[in-house]
């Protein structure tokens, strides 16, 4: 039995409330952190950084932010791409208009600007819910697309609308290499992900979950719906805004308004659905799955087609990708609504008893 809990006693409240109360979980997490920080920077190639590691780390933070709103508070949002754009353009404008600010500080401040915009668009959630709230957040996406394209001040009056992120430096050291940007993104995601985990475990998170389960009953027992919903929108938009600024500064380098279109919103929603609603781990697993699946299909489908005498083009691969995404979403909604996080939980339950049948 690899996952035994017998003999692991909790003698204090701190030990009982730990994020990883079981020793095996702590050891696995420490091993993963050691690999991420000490092994990956020495063995990963530039392609692995650009195609896999940095996108996974940044989008995992954005999925965590969306999961705070949808999974923990039960509020539907289709405007996460716009909030990523708000964080990116806010950080860009802070960097060029307040030149003494470090770009890393601008990334965090961009999250606060996105939080303020998120609160403004979260106000309709006090009166509407479900499909109508989805339409309200979709309006935020359309408004963001229009503003990024038409308000020239946002893009510093560039004729093409394309902007360039400032170089990332800290204490005079250049941090623009793929390994350095990966470490920076990993530090941001780990720090803010840990903060989000503690928030959802605290009294604010319990208020969110009470609103999600039944808002009328939550109000009867003393939960203030306005405070709970707006704090969920604020925290969610902050995390998504920081992820958007990292996506622009650390991954893209230069970008256009189309980088934060509604397709990005749907991509994040797919991560949350496939990974698991109401789970921080599920957000990370969903980001890994959504990023790696297209790479796997692009590498596996052409040789497979050649083996059976069918030449598969890049367009065909993209069509297969869309179909597989749709099938997986339907599958998880029907078979396992809690996504990959639930499958991982079931696997841990099996390991508690293995090799015994019950």
What does this structure look like?
The structure is a single chain. By secondary structure, the protein is mainly alpha-helical. Helix content is 72%, strand content 2%. The protein is built from 14 helices and 4 strands. The chain has helices at 13-16, 23-43, 46-72, 80-97, 103-122, 131-150, 178-201, 203-213, 215-220, 225-252, 262-275, 280-307, 314-334, 339-353, and strands at 163-164, 169-170, 173-174, 254-255. The strands form 2 sheets. A two-stranded antiparallel sheet has the order 1-4. Strand 2 (169-170) and strand 3 form a beta hairpin. The model has no long low-confidence stretch (mean pLDDT 88).
Give the topology string: H per helix, E per strand: HHHHHHEEEHHHHEHHHH
Please summarize the sheet with the most strands.
Answer: 2 strands, antiparallel
Task: Extract low-pLDDT stretches.
Answer: none
Task: Assign an overall shape.
Answer: globular
Number of strands: 4
Helix content: over 70%
Q: Report how far apart the termini are.
A: 12 Å
Strand order, main sheet: write it out: 1-4
Mean pLDDT: 88
Radius of gyration (CA) equals: 21 Å
Roughly what fraction of the amino acids lie in strands? under 5%
Key terms:
358 residues; mainly alpha; two-stranded antiparallel sheet; 14 helices; globular
List the helices and strands and how they pair.
Layout lengths: L12 H4 L6 H21 L2 H27 L7 H18 L5 H20 L8 H20 L12 E2 L4 E2 L2 E2 L3 H24 L1 H11 L1 H6 L4 H28 L1 E2 L6 H14 L4 H28 L6 H21 L4 H15 L5
Antiparallel strand pairs: 1-4, 2-3
């Amino acid at each position: 039995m690899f996952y035994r809990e017998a003999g692991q006693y909790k003698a204090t409240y701190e030990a009982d409330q730990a994020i990883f109360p079981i020793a095996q979980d702590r050891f696995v997490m420490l091993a993963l952190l050691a690999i991420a920080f000490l092994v990956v920077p020495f063995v990963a190639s530039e392609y692995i950084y650009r195609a896999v590691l940095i996108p996974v780390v940044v989008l995992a933070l954005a999925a965590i932010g969306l999961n705070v709103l949808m999974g923990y508070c039960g509020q539907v949002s289709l405007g996460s791409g716009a909030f990523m754009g708000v964080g990116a353009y806010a950080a860009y404008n802070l960097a060029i208009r307040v030149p003494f600010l470090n770009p890393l500080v601008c990334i965090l401040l961009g999250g606060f600007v996105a939080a303020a915009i998120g609160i403004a668009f979260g106000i309709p959630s006090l009166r509407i819910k479900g499909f109508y709230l989805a339409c309200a957040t979709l309006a935020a996406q359309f408004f963001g697309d229009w503003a990024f394209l038409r308000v020239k001040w946002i893009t510093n009056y560039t004729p093409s609308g394309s902007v360039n992120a400032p170089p990332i430096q800290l204490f005079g050291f250049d941090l623009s290499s793929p390994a350095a940007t990966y470490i920076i993104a990993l530090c941001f995601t780990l720090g803010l992900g840990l903060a989000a985990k503690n928030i959802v475990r605290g009294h604010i998170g319990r208020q969110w979950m009470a609103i999600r389960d039944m808002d009328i009953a939550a109000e009867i027992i003393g939960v203030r719906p306005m405070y709970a919903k707006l704090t969920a929108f604020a925290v969610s938009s902050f995390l998504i805004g920081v992820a958007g600024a990292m996506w622009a500064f650390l991954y893209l380098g230069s970008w256009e308004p189309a980088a934060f279109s509604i397709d990005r919103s749907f991509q994040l929603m797919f991560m949350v659905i496939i990974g698991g609603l109401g789970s921080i781990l599920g957000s990370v697993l969903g980001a890994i799955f959504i990023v790696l699946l297209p790479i796997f299909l692009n590498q596996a489908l052409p040789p497979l087609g050649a083996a059976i005498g069918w030449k598969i083009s890049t367009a065909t691969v993209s069509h297969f990708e869309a179909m597989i995404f749709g099938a997986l979403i339907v599958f998880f909604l029907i078979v396992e609504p809690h996504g990959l996080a639930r499958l991982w939980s079931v696997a841990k339950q099996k390991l508690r008893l293995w090799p015994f049948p019950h």
